[in-house]
Design a protein that fits this description.
The chain is α+β, with helices and mostly antiparallel strands. It folds into 2 domains: about 150 residues, Jelly Rolls, CATH 2.60.120; about 70 residues, Winged helix-like DNA-binding domain superfamily/Winged helix DNA-binding domain (Arc Repressor Mutant, subunit A, Orthogonal Bundle), CATH 1.10.10. About 50% of the residues lie in helices and about 20% in strands. A 4-stranded antiparallel beta sheet has the order 2-6-4-5. The protein has a 3-stranded antiparallel beta sheet with strand order 1-7-3. The protein has a two-stranded antiparallel ribbon with strand order 8-9. β8 and β9 form a beta hairpin. α6 crosses α9 and α7 crosses α8. The termini are far apart.
Length: about 220
């Protein structure tokens, strides 16, 4: 690892500076730099998990696929964060429970499983870093389970539109991937929202016209 890579890694993951010197030296000696283009599948459900990633550039989409081929977005991994599905696989010595795809060109350092486990055991600061993200993602996934199990797709789509900065430039396929449904379903719902006067559809653009009405729809029970 050269000085430039070392400086960038420590800047994005300051917790590494709290590792014991011996561990820190091993991180520097064994970390492997990996780059990937947009769209590259980094791992699949059932594939072997042998390394812990330290993402320094780009975004990784972590998703679960249905038998019909629809993908449900679990979360996005950004630089400085800990990948929970990787942590679960490494700690449990299991295969990946979800897939990971590069949403943008990315760069990351891979840390061998043995070194990751040693850092968790011997560095309180690193252990807190890993388990804080585990707790955060688990809370998010519990909310996602509630949404998928108890709320209709149209209400979930309304919630997604309200949470996004305007105008929303996500494509219908991107929205479908996030919600774990088909592009056709999303398109029909958006057309209905437009006919109701809540949104206006444009080319790769969704503009909210009546936020209050969309919010009321999003909160309706038994709608």
């Amino acid at each position: 690892m050269n000085a430039t890579d070392r400086g960038r890694l420590y800047r994005i993951y300051p917790v590494l500076g709290k590792l014991p010197p011996v561990l820190l030296k091993r991180f520097e000696e064994t970390a492997t730099l990996v780059t990937a283009p947009r769209g590259k599948r980094l791992f699949d459900v059932g594939s072997v998990c042998a390394d812990y990633p330290l993402l320094i550039e780009g975004t990784v989409r972590i998703a679960k696929s249905s038998p019909e081929g629809h993908e449900l977005l679990l979360y996005l991994l950004n630089p400085g964060e800990s990948c929970v599905v990787t942590v679960v696989a490494l700690l449990g010595e299991t295969s990946f429970p979800a897939s990971g795809t590069a949403m943008t060109p990315l760069s990351l350092f891979r840390i061998p499983r043995s070194l990751f486990l040693q850092a968790v055991l011997e560095s309180p600061a690193f252990r807190v870093f890993v388990f804080n993200f585990l707790s955060l993602r688990l809370s998010h996934l519990m909310t996602l389970v509630d949404d998928v199990a108890f709320r209709r797709v149209d209400q979930r789509l309304a919630s997604r539109l309200l949470a996004q900065a305007e105008p929303d430039t996500a494509t219908h396929q991107m929205l479908a991937d996030e919600l774990g449904t088909s592009r056709e379903v999303v398109s029909r719902i958006l057309e209905r929202f437009q006919q109701s006067g809540m949104i206006k559809l444009g080319r790769k653009r969704i503009e909210i016209l009546d936020r209050n009405a969309l919010d009321r729809f999003h909160h309706l029970e038994g709608n």
